[in-house]
Design a protein that fits this description.
This protein is of the alpha+beta class. The chain has ten helices and eight strands. It has a three-stranded antiparallel beta sheet, with helices on both faces. Strands 4-5-6 form a three-stranded mixed beta sheet. It is elongated, with a radius of gyration of 20 Å. The protein starts with 7 loop residues before the first helix and ends with a helix. The N terminus is likely disordered. This is Type IV toxin-antitoxin system AbiEi family antitoxin domain-containing protein. InterPro entries: AbiEi_N.
Length: 200
């Protein structure tokens, strides 16, 4: 008899548990599930099909949802290349009044996939511009403010994010301004305006 950790379900569960219960067909195949077995588990309701090639263990669907569970799905969709960014990152960091209607992702310049549910931005991010969360990556608060400002996010949202980040003591004005300067003059102007709003 094989050890528990060698069984396909145990292998897949161990991986999916770090991804809020989500997994790809390729990950299931690597864990030991043939495509026929995968079809069987979806048909039986053991796995919930989320999208083409992406499923989730039913047990996680039945559990109380974490606020950002759905972001893991887009990490898997992008084969691990996407980083949650812009106003989506502001929302993840609970900064300001940003309430994005769409999910913003930053991907490497060569990325070609598209989906109407997401806004795709292309950029090479440095490791220090990203943070790891459970099952997904997100741009840092400083980067999230700068890229949102560059994208033209409403000034009130930038103002509130800047004020909250400074109030937390999580960044300095100099750090915010340098990050904004790196992404362009539009971001720099918006961040400078936010500094004036903070003093008002």
């Amino acid at each position: 008899m094989r050890l528990r950790d060698e069984e396909p379900r145990a292998r897949l569960w161990s991986l999916a548990a770090r991804q809020r219960g989500y997994f790809t067909a390729a990950q299931a195949l690597e864990a030991g599930y043939t495509y026929q077995a995968q079809h069987h588990h979806v048909g039986r309701g053991n796995w919930i099909r989320i999208d083409r090639g992406i499923c989730r263990f039913r047990e996680f669907v039945d559990l109380p949802a974490e606020k950002h569970d759905h972001l893991v799905r887009w990490t898997l969709w992008s084969q691990g290349r996407a980083v949650m960014s812009h106003s989506t990152a502001l929302e993840v960091h609970d900064l300001g009044i940003a309430n994005p209607a769409e999910i913003h992702l930053t991907v490497p310049p060569g990325f070609r996939q598209r989906d109407p549910a997401v806004v795709v931005h292309r950029a090479d991010l440095a490791p220090e511009e990203m943070e790891e969360r459970e099952g997904f990556r997100v741009t840092t608060p400083i980067r999230a403010i700068a890229e949102s400002a560059a994208e033209g996010t409403d000034q009130d949202a930038i103002d509130s994010a800047v004020v909250e980040l400074l109030d937390r003591g999580a960044a300095t004005k100099g750090q915010l301004l340098r990050a904004a300067q790196r992404v362009g003059p539009r971001a720099e102007l918006a961040v400078e305006r936010a500094f004036h709003a903070e003093r008002a």
